[in-house]
Amino acid sequence: MPEYRKTDHFKSDYKRLVKDNPELEKTAKKAFRLFQQNPGHPSLDIHGLDNNKGIFGGHITDKYVFTFQKDKDENGELIYWFRRIGDHAIYKKP
């Protein structure tokens, strides 16, 4: 079963984002539950990021997105690292 981890950047982005937009917290949590159930769900619009090999982006809403990468632990188990969350500007520094 995959493991889900958050980078410090993701944690600070998330805290700032929901502070400024409390309604977005429910929407984001719903999107991440959906990701855990089916990372390829069409509504998440998962895609590779140009010029950032191994980093992917996905949608929470039309305006808000997240980035992640896949890794494996020492036992070969899949880990999803959530890297950033915010508006599309995060794609410049995913």
Give a nutshell description of this structure.
With 94 residues, the protein is an alpha+beta fold. The chain contains 2 helices and 5 strands, in the order βααββββ.
**Count of discrete alpha- or pi-helical segments spanning 4 or more residues:** 2
In whole angstroms, the N-to-C terminal distance is 25 Å
Report the strand count. 5
Biggest sheet details: 5 strands, mixed
Oligomerization category of the chains in this entry: single chain
CATH superfamily: RelE-like
Task: Give an overview in words.
The chain has a five-stranded mixed β-sheet. The protein has a single domain, classed as RelE-like (YaeB-like fold). The longest helix is centred in the N-terminal third of the chain and has 16 residues. The chain is of the alpha+beta class and 94 residues long. It contains two helices and five strands, in the order E-H-H-E-E-E-E. Helix 1 crosses helix 2. The relative contact order is 0.23.
